[in-house]
Amino acid sequence: MNSIKQRLDAQLAQPQLTKSGAICHFIGVEGLDRLQLENIIDKAMGYFDGKGRLINTDELAGKTVMNLFFENSTRTRTTFEAAQKRLGANVLNLDIARSSTNKGETLRDTLWNLEAMSADMFVVRHSASGAAHFMASQVTPNVAIINAGDGWHAHPTQAMLDMLTIHREYCLKHSTTFDKLSVAIIGDIKHSRVARSDISALQTLGVKDIRVIAPKTLLPKGIERYGVSVFNKMEEGLAGVDIIIGLRIQNERIGSPLLPSTSEYFKHYGITDTRVALAKPDALVMHPGPMNRGVEIASNVADGEQSVILKQVNNGIAVRMAVMAMAMRGQESLRNLA
Ligand code: NCD
To answer: 124 CA distance to ligand 1 centroid (A)?
Structure first.
């Protein structure tokens, strides 16, 4: 980047980056370049010891992190908390069900009140797309916002834990790189923030062959513009892929005009061992969870040798440690400049 104006414009468009390109909030993978994503993967790799066990550090010692989950979550919320504790942070979980947002308080007022309690970082999951971006625009300088999923829009830490899993479990084991991979994402692409963030991260890391496999009713309009190839049949889309990513079918959509029945869906789009056999012999089977066994994935595949679904959960701790430590360091560099 060659002019100060260009740098300032870039920062307005990208509140998650400092002027020197360091991460200071983590809102989305869009706008981050390949080196920045690789830095997150490298940093996360550094949180495993020689035996592959997670380590503890003091990178967030003395910092207060608040978890604001306005939507349900098991894995994301717990792995964020585990990551915060491994980084030595003081952790506060806001009990949203009993909070004043239920009495009509705005998100902005909730944020400002919690800030007054000396928070250094907020991890937020919200049903409104753009909630994390909005909070980053409202928050006091030096407080970091981490997006733990906003509406249908983005789930950047899920995307990065998926990238770390592909890197550790496939690229390193097969001495290959992202640019040589074929990746299939199956299911409810239309309503999935995981699919959007995964596609973006995979493209930035150089994956050229990204396939989405879904019935037409579960594909967003204009999906071709995402730079992916679209398949309506599993048998065609899965041929020769390295990575299979299943998505949750929202039960609330079953029986609606979008999906006739769970058994019908499983018949056409279920990830079964016969279908996994169409992919490369050591292809990875991934799923962000929560999964519906017998709907989008057969139980024996979910528990089978090629499944890395529980490894994804463990990698989630390392990736969340990495982005929180990086964002806090980015905020500190802003403080030092002020
Ligand atoms: C996903 C989410 O919440 O977006 N799950 C997760 O974070 N592990 C996917 C989903 O709910 O289907």
So the answer is: 14
Helix/strand/coil (H/E/C) assignment for every residue in the chain: CCCHHHHHHHHHHCCCECCCCCECCECCCCCCCHHHHHHHHHHHHCCECCCCCECCCCCCCCCEEEEEECCCCCHHHHHHHHHHHHCCCEEEECCHHHCHHHHCCCHHHHHHHHHCCCCCEEEEEECCCCHHHHHHHHCCCCCEEEEEEECCCECHHHHHHHHHHHHHHHHCCCCCCHHHCEEEEECCCCCCHHHHHHHHHHHHCCCCEEEEECCHHHCCCCHHHHCCEEECCHHHHCCCCCEEEECCCCHHHECCCCECCHHHHHHHHCECHHHHCCCCCCCEEECCCCCCECCCECHHHHCCCCECHHHHHHHHHHHHHHHHHHHHHHHHHHHHHC
Q: Which tokens hold the place of 70?
A: 């306005």
What count of other Cβ atoms lies within 10 Å of the Cβ of residue 203? 18
Residue among 153, 194, 198, 295 to mutate when testing ligand 1 (max atoms within 8 A of CB): 194
How far, in Å, from the CA of 194 to the mean position of ligand 1? Answer: 7
Distance of CA 47 to the CA centre of its chain: 18
Q: How far is CA 9 from the centre of its chain?
A: 26
211 assigned binding-site residue: no
Over residues 252-307, the pLDDT tens digits come to 666 677 777 889 999 999 999 999 999 999 999 999 999 999 999 999 999 999 99
Q: Is the CB of 280 under 6 A from ligand 1?
A: no
Token digits of residue 64: 């207060």
- Tell me: the pLDDT tens digits for 35-93? 999 999 999 999 999 999 999 999 999 999 999 999 989 899 999 999 999 999 999 99
